[in-house]
Each structure stands twice: as structure tokens, then as C-alpha cells.
């Protein structure tokens, strides 16, 4: 306990000395969310990354998030405390494979979920997050959209647009393994709870949900909603929900809703990151310049 307190104090001191800001995704460990200057969903953190005055952004999330911050704030040093924290879904599409697919659909716009590498963003017309995917797709002139890499988010968007959505075959392993059997069991156990699902879930799970939101969408919804919720997304968000709403009850939809990548950073790796200024995330300017266009097009739409 004492050691933890010392670690926290050293992090806070070094943060001052380095003129750093700590951003943390809603799925990070509770202790990381608690020490962060800002927590949020992918969209909120992308916006935060553009608005910081600090010299250093310590990004507590996964690789693509730190990469996006580096693209959006090229003048800042962006650190990812655990270099191996990656997103399996982002690895399911490469720029090379996307170039091949684009040739098959020359009249389609390419929308890429931010859960993708900088190389893939550079091959795309516009990015989206789970919070704005429908608005992004509907903002386009093209009638056809090649949507990478999440097939579940692509399917979710297809419910709210007249455009033809051509999905990629990627998915988030954490969300994709949430099954209707989990949902039905959780609903039977908590019949009065509202079921909130993330759009990375499968269609049949979405069909059983009362509401579908990005993680920050859930945070905002819960403030003015009922008292009990079943949460069908990565369980880290429950830390934030419970902290903001101590009188309300939150239940994980199943015991398997953990993304190991989002749990890779702990207080020790955060401290080491600030001590050693590791691991710096950079993106070559030729890739970054193109990826920035796709990210900025999205940010112009905002929420
Ligand atoms: P948000 O869009 O709610 O940030 O969640 C996406 C996600 O899975 C981040 O890895
Ligand atoms: Fe990737 Fe899913 Fe983990 Fe998010 S929760 S980082 S989409 S694997």
C-alpha cells in the first residue's frame, strides 16, 4: 500500500517535471484511470490529444491510440508505457491488403475505424470511432463504403444508412466472444437492469440490447438513466461507471469481458515510462501526413 502511494507520488512529480499529461482509455485498469488527467473513449481521447499544451502525452491505451496522438500532435512526444500493448483487431487489416480491396471497389469511399494502424489510416478517406461511425458514413458523398476492419461495427452502421457497406472481416476478440447465451443469462439474473452494448458486439447481441453506445456514450447515458445496468463491453468501463454513480449497480455481461491489451499498463510501467521517456511512438511523416487527413476529416464532424 505504502509502495503504491510512493509510486503514485513519483508519477505525479515526474509528470510535472516532464510537463506531461496522462490520457487513459475507459478500459484501462482502475488505478491508471484514477491517476490520468483525462479518461475517455477513442474519440474523446483523440480530441484531447489535439488540445493539450503539454510537451509529453503519456497514452495509457493501446498502440493505435498512441499512434493517432502522434499523428495529430507531431510536435509532442507521445509515450506508450507498454510497447506490446496492441489491438488484435487493428492487426486484422494491412495497408497492402486494403490496397488490393480498394481496386475491387474503385467507386467506394474507404472508412477506417480508428482501431487500425497508421498505414491503414493513410490508405483511407476518413476515420471513425464507435461514437461517430454512423455520422461519418452518412457524411460521405459516395453511395458505397468499404469499411475496415470491424465487421460488427460495419454491420451496426448498415442499420442506419442507405449506403452499401462493404465490410472487412475483422473483429474485436473481446466483444465478439460475448454471446446471446451470456446476455440471456445476465438478463435472467438481473431482470430490472438495462442492457447497454458496445457496437463492436455481434448483431444478435446488439438485437438484445436496450441501448448501444461507445464507452463514453455509456458514461453519459447512465448519469440520467435507471439504477441497474448490464454492461456488454470490456469490463474496465465499470470502474468509471461505478465511480461516477456510487448508488447504481453495474453487472458484467459475462466473466470473459477482458481485453488483456488494455490491462498491460500498470502503475510501475507508467512510472518507468516517465522515468525513461519510453516508449516513444513516432510515425514517418509520409504516412502521418496522409493518416492525418483521414483523422482530421473525422474530427471536423466530432460527435
Ligand atoms: P470506444 O470507441 O468506446 O473507445 O471503444 C473502442 C475500443 O474498443 C477501444 O479499444
Ligand atoms: Fe482492440 Fe477489442 Fe482490445 Fe479494444 S477491446 S483494444 S478493440 S481487442
Name the descriptors.
single chain, 303 residues, alpha/beta, Rossmann fold, four-stranded parallel beta sheet, globular, binds 1,3-dihydroxyacetonephosphate, binds iron/sulfur cluster
Q: What is the H level of CATH, i.e. the homologous superfamily of the largest domain?
A: NadA-like
Structural class: alpha/beta
CATH architecture of the largest domain: 3-Layer(aba) Sandwich
**Distinct ligands:** 1,3-dihydroxyacetonephosphate, iron/sulfur cluster
Strand numbers in spatial order across the main sheet: 2-1-3-4
* Largest sheet descriptor: 4 strands, parallel
Low-pLDDT parts are none
Distance between the termini: 40 Å
Q: Which H/E pattern describes the elements? A: HEHEHEHEHEHEHEHEHHEHEHEHEHH
User: What is the overall number of helices?
Assistant: 15
Residue-averaged pLDDT: 97
CATH class of the largest domain reads: Alpha Beta
Whole-angstrom Rg = 19 Å
What is the domain total for the residues?
Answer: 3
CATH topology-level name of the largest domain: Rossmann fold
> Looking at the structure, what is the overall shape?
globular
Number of beta strands: 12
